[in-house]
Amino acid sequence: MRIIAKRTLRNFWKRHPKAKGPLEAWHQEVAHADWVSPSAVKAHFRSASVLQSNRVVFNVAGNQYRLIVKINYPYRVVYIRFIGTHSEYDAIDVTSI
Asked: pTM higher than 0.70, yes or no?
């Protein structure tokens, strides 16, 4: 999968250094994935939550952080929409991000 934009992850782990390892691991796994549907994402990441409009929420670092992406399955592109702490995630509307 092609991931846009890793810069968002880098900026986040500069503020939260403990997130760097888990986010790099997530990035590497997703870059090597070939998801054609939401069920393929769930097969790879069982704890991921599939939302409407091709959005997926990933729990990162033992659920300390939440990552929201939007996936264009036909073009194999993953757009990073949000990365934040669990409390930051609770303060947003995941359906509109």
From this structure: yes
